Amino acid sequence: MDTEAQPTERDRSSPPATPGAEGRSRFALASRIAEWLPGGRLTLTLLICLVFLLLLNVFVVRPFQIPSGSMESGLRIGDRVLVNELAYRFGAEPRRGDIVVFDGSGSFGDGDYIKRVVGVGGDHVVCCDQQGRIRVNGRSVDESAFLYPGDSPSTVSFDVVVPDGRLFVLGDHRGDSSDSRDHLGSPGGGMVPVGDVIGRADWIVWPLGHATRLHRPDAYARVPRAAAPGRGTPAAPVPSVTAEGAHG
Question: Per-domain residue ranges for the chain?
């Protein structure tokens, strides 16, 4: 019995596949495009890189420049940070300690701002305890690792419950930051809608001597879950602490 496979009609009529033909076809197409462009392959390469950077900027990360001293000494005026725009896109939400960039329209003012999240939806945030520390859900928070040297956690008292879907944010340089404390009496109560958050600041990339990854501090790790809805003291207006320019 002949055990050798016999070719079918389709086998006889189909030419044998040429290895690498598809790759050569794509290469030939790219070569034709390069010939059509002024500058040839160099221009094509630059265009591909530009498209890649645009897609990266729109959908993944976006560079921001720090315009004020409200987040010193961690973030200094002129620093460039990379903001992860995917950090909160797939069900994740901002956490206490995150540094976030958000659209301040309707809550802070025109422009984008960068602050640290101190309270999330349902949290009861109070200043201050007997040692002058901020308390979140009854737990005092030691902010000394990132608070600007010489600053106190706050020079005014506040006692707020953060509504669901909003954030209570403060600058690390409390003496030079216009933040949630300054807008408690405004529409929205100084709380930033989660939907207005552009992303999380993950890296300082410039200047090179100051480049580093931005980590969430451990200060909020022991803060318990928020109490049941309806508990706590509602927000009350407080006097302005300091003023700063837009984008602070």
Answer: 20-58, 62-220
Residue type, 238: V
pLDDT digits (tens, 9 = 90+) for 138-170: 999 999 999 999 999 999 899 999 999 999 999
Give SS3 for 116: strand
Domain 62-220 falls under CATH 3.40.50.10610: no
DSSP string, 156-202: S-EEEEPPTTEEEEE-SSGGG---GGGGTTSTTTTPEEGGGEEEEEE
Residues 94-103: pLDDT tens digits? 999 999 999 9
Check 68, 107, 115, 178 and give the catalytic one: 115
Instruction: Point out the catalytic residue in the list 68, 70, 140, 180.
Output: 70
